[in-house]
Design goal:
heterodimer, A: 296 residues, D-Maltodextrin-Binding Protein, domain 2, 3 domains, 5-stranded mixed β-sheet, B: 230 residues, mainly alpha, MetI-like fold, 10 helices, globular
């Protein structure tokens, strides 16, 4: 469409008499425009080609990971490099977006999902390497506000009047229909009997980090995000935590993909994610070990 | 037939695109004239700044809008204090995001058509007693009409397709800021949302085709008119 339109402009730019003579000059800017388009659409060279053959340490792997795990994962990757592991790249987005990309054949090695349903879906599609699926840790939901607002800490139960606290503003939540953090938030608000009233006050964000940004920037006076995001963000503070019984368990699963471009390096990093070093880093960022859902 | 939610997204997209085009048209003509006909210090800088939306990712524009026009941004504070307007999470905010992203496309088209106008025609009008404004309206404007129209079509198309700046600045609220591309993205994120996504794809393509065919037809009329045909 952009191509066609830039030519339409090129044609219209000409003066009428030029048009009548049907002498079509190619003007400068559509050419420049197309050149630019051509440049940006040239695919970046793939950093890894074909099936794994070389030594594990030399291979770079690509991990598709839920946006909420980004900060902790970067630290884990550094620790991995420090013990001689290979380079790890991350593609961070909403679990839903990543799962869709994996279904469409994205060349990822590992998938870290913030949600059981999406991991089940990828699993049922036969895209996971057999036996690699592991429950990594759990998380909690918290109600947050910008640090410099004067809300008092609250107990998150049926007596909570979120509408009054919003005071006409919006509640920043990841998309409550598709993104895991938003789905959990909706379930929690449904359990508290607040969803019907609050639904119209929600600002659905593209992922949980976007919801955090909206609260940080004071766009939304309140938000519901993961405890781990709240912890990692200085400009927001936690007003109260949602009880884990209010929503499905927030389980983070990791698995190796059946078509991983670098399977040996992927297994090595998958094992490292479950090592004590990685567990320490994750718990420092607030992720709870899988068997202990209630501890912070 | 489209469901109510689809109609809502469709009408919202049209409203956002129409307002973004109409709102950016007067400044685009004024700035295009300024850039085409005058030289002043900062000419290249202004030109460069106005072209930023063309070369940076829309998400960057959305983030900058959030920082400057958000509740805590300098522009947002000004708008709220002086006019009582908040743009966050409103369709007006979506229209502004679209307008900014599409602005350079409109500006370029208009500027180039102004540069193509023979200035002697304007001078002739002046010698016959027309004021500068009168000469602009009766001579220049009809001559650049095809370029203005091309710019409007381009920026309308760009507005209809706006995604990154919109979702970052005003998020994706059904009925308020969830335009067709955002609705399509949301549908594609739900397990089993393929059917819904497909319907939205069909609606988007239909809308784009209607707009393109309509603009072709109008362009032919405008060209015919401005080349002085019978």
């Amino acid at each position: 469409m952009q191509y066609i339109l830039s030519y339409i402009i090129a044609a219209w730019r000409q003066r009428p008499e030029v048009h009548r003579n049907r002498a079509v000059r190619i003007s400068r800017w559509p050419v420049a425009c197309l050149t630019l388009l051509g440049l940006v659409s040239v695919p970046a060279p793939f950093t890894q080609g074909g099936p794994a053959a070389g030594p594990v340490a030399g291979q770079e792997i690509l991990v598709f990971a839920a946006a909420s795990t980004g900060t902790a994962l970067a630290e884990v990757a550094n620790a991995y490099a420090a013990v001689g592991g290979g380079r790890v790249r991350f593609s961070l987005a909403a679990t839903s977006a990543l799962a869709r990309q994996i279904e469409s054949g994205a060349p990822a090695d590992l998938f870290l999902s913030a949600n059981t349903a999406w991991m089940d879906r990828v699993d049922e599609a036969g895209l996971l390497a057999a036996g690699s699926r592991t429950l990594l840790f759990r998380n909690r939901l918290v109600l947050v506000a910008p640090s410099d607002t004067d809300f008092d800490p609250v107990a998150v139960d049926i007596s909570l009047d979120v509408e009054a606290m919003l005071d006409g503003g919006r509640l920043a939540v990841a998309d409550p229909v598709s993104v895991p953090a938003g789905i959990y938030a909706r379930q929690a608000l449904e359990s508290l009997g607040m969803w019907d009233r609050l639904q119209a006050r929600v600002a659905p964000a593209s992922d949980v980090r976007h919801a955090t940004l909206l609260v940080r920037r004071h766009e939304a006076p309140l938000g519901i995000v993961y405890w781990t995001d709240a912890r990692d963000t200085a400009e927001i503070r936690v007003l109260g935590a949602f009880s884990p019984e209010l929503h499905d368990p927030i389980a983070y699963w990791v698995a190796q993909l059946a078509d991983a471009p670098a399977p040996a390096a992927a297994s090595a990093f998958l094992a490292f994610l479950q090592s004590d070093v990685a567990r320490t880093i994750f718990s420092r960022h607030g992720f709870a070990p899988p068997l202990d859902a209630n501890t912070r | 037939m489209p469901t109510p939610a689809e109609t809502e997204a469709l009408l919202l997209s049209l409203r956002v695109a129409v307002w973004s085009v109409l709102g950016s048209l007067p400044p685009a003509i004024a700035i295009a004239w300024l850039l085409a006909r005058t030289r002043f210090p900062g000419h290249a800088l202004l030109n460069g700044i106005l072209h930023i939306p063309l070369v940076v990712p829309p998400v960057v524009i959305g983030y900058l809008l959030l920082v400057f026009l958000g509740r805590r941004g300098p522009g947002g504070v000004f708008l709220e204090n002086v006019f009582g307007i908040t743009l966050g999470f409103t369709w007006q905010g979506a229209a502004i995001a679209s307008a900014i992203v599409a602005f350079p496309l409109m500006l370029r088209a208009i500027r180039q058509s102004i540069e193509g106008v023979d200035r002697r025609l304007e001078q002739a009008a002046r010698t016959l007693g027309a004021s500068p404004a009168n000469a602009f309206c009766t001579v220049t404007l009809p001559l650049i009409a095809p370029g203005v129209f091309a710019g409007m079509v381009l920026s309308f198309a760009r507005s209809l397709g706006e995604f990154g700046a919109t979702i970052t600045f005003v998020s994706s609220i059904p009925g308020e800021t969830r335009t067709l591309p955002l609705a399509l993205y949301a549908a594609a994120q739900v397990p089993g949302g393929e059917a819904q996504a497909t319907r939205l794809v069909v609606i988007s393509i239909t809308l784009a085709m209607i707009a393109l065919i309509g603009s072709e037809w109008l362009a032919r009329r405008t060209r015919h008119y401005s080349s002085g045909g019978p």
